[in-house]
Amino acid sequence: MQLRHLKAFIAAAQTLNFTRAAEAVHLSQSSVTEQIQALEAEFGVSLFDRSHRRLALTSAGQRLLPYAVELLDLAGEARSAVAMTSAAVSGALAVGGLETLCSTRLPGLLADFGRAHPSVELKLKAADSSGLRNGLMGGELDVAFMFGAPPTVPAIRSEVLADEELLIVLPPGHRLAGRATLLSEDLSEEMFVVTPRGCVYRKMFDEAMGGLPGEPKRLGEAASIGAILGLVEAGQGCALVPASAVAARTSRLVAKPWAGAGSTPISMLWRHRRVQSPATAAFLAAVRDHFRLHTNRWPPST
Question: 256 near 168, Cβ under 8 Å?
């Protein structure tokens, strides 16, 4: 039984799609298929039901999955335990984050860590919340950052690093642009551009707007915060976004605080292991130091 076969199997089991599994493990789809077929030949059973339009795990595949995850974890812990005998911090470190965090909070943090540990090969990947959790579970990511309360998953450890203010973003020349702070009644007639349901940004919007009288008016949906801000700047409605999304954008957008918006936590997540790799352990410590030294609001004071 080869570890690379188990890695391909886990990716396919998590995505239930050979194409997405291949993307997750950076292989061609044919290679993933071949590795899973080799695993099935070794066990003498089918691990996936391919008879329907949607791929599904067989009962044998369901039984194998937790063992496959544990075997990969043990292999990673063994490598980490051996690496701990070296004084130098080296190896690869894969960091993931939501799109907004990857373009605002994380670049400077990774640059500082890279200067302190030049022998560590850093990778940064943007994904949605589900993709980040799957990346951690599948071993493609070592550490991930997202907005919102961390998930309660036994295999994943997490902590809240900071709180980030949520702002109402208005197009240039909007009737509320001159206000210092917005009130709930100011927003009752406004149209908002939002992300689709299931997205963490949509959850922020729905929770913040839940206190308004009546259901908030939605002009439309866009798949990313960048697209939403572009639409707002073009005069297509307003938006509710984390402050860092606006601070990192050079534009004519008007961002205003709203007492009802509150803030959202920034959470750091990593896969629980008995022994973390030296690179992961050093990075977790560096992140904690970074957020202790900076204000817990964004943008940080100078």
Answer: yes
Query: What confidence category does residue 200 fall into, taking pLDDT thresholds of 50, 70 and 90?
Result: confident
All domains in the chain, ordered by first residue: 3-82 (1.10.10.10), 88-162+265-293 (3.40.190.10), 163-264 (3.40.190.290)
For residue 250, what pLDDT is reported?
A: 61
For the ranges 67-76, 190-199, 242-251, 272-281, the maximum mean pLDDT occurs at 190-199
What is residue 251's DSSP assignment?
A: S
DSSP string for 30-74:
HHHHHHHHHHHHHHTS-SEE-SSSS-EE-HHHHHHHHHHHHHHHH
Parallel, antiparallel or unpaired: strands 56-57 and 91-97? unpaired
Peptide bond into 172 cis (omega under 30): no
Distance of alpha carbon 21 from alpha carbon 276, whole angstroms: 25
Alpha carbon distance 240, 204 (integer Å): 8
pTM for this structure? Answer: 0.71
Say how far apart CA 83 and CA 90 lie, in whole Å: 8
The C-alpha torsion from 66 through 23 and 4 to 39, rounded to 10°, is 70
Better-predicted residue by pLDDT, 124 or 181: 124
State phi, psi for 127 to the nearest 5 degrees: -160, 170
Q: Give the pLDDT mean for 215-228.
A: 84
